[in-house]
Amino acid sequence: MAKEPGGEQAIAKRAAKGICSPRARLEMLFDPGTFVEVGGLVKAPGASEAGYGDGVVTGHGLVFGRPVAAFSHDQTVMGGSVGEMFGRKVSTLMEWAGKLGCPMVGINDSAGARIQDAVTSLAWYAEMGRRNDLLSGLAPQVSIILGKCAGGAVYTPANTDILVGVEDKSYMFVTGPEILKAVNGEDISAEDLGSAHNQARWGNIHHVAADEKAAFEWVREYLQYMPSSCWETPPVINPGLEPEVTDSDRELNTFMPDSDNAGYDMRDILVKLFDDGAFHEIGELFAPNILTGFARVDGHSVGVVANQPSVMAGTLDTDASEKATRFVRICNAFNIPLIFLVDTPGILPGLVEEEKGTIRRSGKFLYAYVEADVPKITVVLRKAYGGAYAVMGCKQLGADINFAWPTAKIAVMGAESAAVLLTRKQTEGLSAAAADKVRRDFIDFYNVMMANPYLAAEKGYIDAVIEPAQTRLQLRKALAQLRDKKVLRAPRKHFLMPI
Questions:
Q1: 170: helix, strand or coil
Q2: Are 462 and 401 in contact (CB under 8 A)?
Q3: What pLDDT is stored for residue 261 in this prediction?
């Protein structure tokens, strides 16, 4: 009865919905045969046999041979809502993960607070929230959103590091559509209010998988890039691959389009720079003009932040800055080096961005980069203009090693914009053709004499101008040099991010 507290009726209900049991979900997360359940016979006071477990399965096991703690909501027991024993079980498991120093995975499929338990349910949500602080930055925290999760069932996951959903099966909302309609008459579907796809576009979910199996595989792979705790290092996997320049490396020498304004997919470069061409992307659907994710260099985990020229030309906007901020802080918390790949025409201007509070919100990106004390390497591939040059890992913000390709252009603004401003007097009174020639001549001069990477290298802002084909091996050497980097800071209670 403790294995299936909802009995045959619950099994039939799950089968009709096409969803897995909480224990089957845990089996997809853990290495086969390693899950150890804790608290399976717990019942809320006065509960019937159907109340075994109080709506949540808790325990621990191994993921690729390393300890991980996890809980899984049982949606067939009072909707997976939080009661006293539910809260006690999860809180105890979080404390166990904190003592051991191991990742915590929450599998969420819950209606939220248990209305029948009134303030007791709210109190235990608060207790679990307090233990998120216990684990925050100490051990990786991942939330998998399955089913329709509302209220506290989304607030607590929002305070974990990474949230994962499943297409057409995961929903998140502060208040569900039924309550909204009853309270204020707002008629909206669950899909529009909180589908996985929409929540990912809004930045609340960091990966949307095709199905539950794919979601658990993604989480298992994510944990392979992470240490068990901030006091350890991530697993080193397949170091020493391809120690010489390869044909794939040489393709980078002719990769960059001739036109500065031509777009390309940054992922086509990433697959050539990192081990096995692997890139575990975080936040694919949110702010796609910047890419964030994990890769490996010589077997070691690295965090990658790269402009995406195929979307908005790689321009930095408010959402891109917030996406990068969160990612940089995750990497810094778990001692994962950062590699920035730069090709951006600047920061997006305009009234819409100002109304978003872009000065304050984008300022978090600069703050997070300066705060990060892990090894930091920047490669300028093409455009690095204006404030975007600064925040995308410039030497003056604390980058340890800065490379540039010969195709790099580093300047206050692009040549075309500079020509408009700086040739205004020269073109007054000229015919259209003559004025255009003056501007084109200026653009050629600007690109050759003012924006080239060698000028930045002469001033010490770029450490080396490298052949694109050498990039993979230069990253490997740079990280080997920086592996023992340590930064000592003056003690204080905490820093003040612009939030």
A1: strand
A2: no
A3: 85
Average pLDDT across the chain, whole number: 89
Whole-angstrom distance, CA of residue 156 vs CA of residue 144: 12
The H-or-E segment that residue 60 falls in is strand 56-63
Q: Alpha-carbon dihedral of residues 26, 29, 31, 33, nearest 10 degrees? A: 10
For the stretch 270-323, pLDDT in tens is 999 999 999 999 999 999 999 999 999 999 999 999 999 999 999 999 999 999
* Catalytic positions, written as ranges: 151-152, 387-388
Number of other CB atoms surrounding residue 123 within 10 Å: 14
Q: Say what the pLDDT of residue 273 is.
A: 98
Burial 124-156 (b: 16+ CB within 10 A, else e): bbebbeebbeebeebbbbbbbbbbbbbbbbbbb
Q: Over the stretch 47-95, which tens digit does the pLDDT of each residue have?
A: 665 577 888 999 999 999 999 999 999 877 777 778 888 889 999 999 9
Contact of 334 with 233, CB cutoff 8 Å: no
Taking alpha carbons only, the member of 185, 376, 197, 361 closest to residue 284 is 197
Half-sphere exposure of 469 (CA within 13 A, CB side): 10
Angle of the 358-371 helix axis to the 318-333 helix axis, nearest 10:
20
Q: How far apart are CA 41 and CA 45, in angstroms?
A: 12
What value does the CA radius of gyration of the chain take, rounded to a whole number of Å? 26
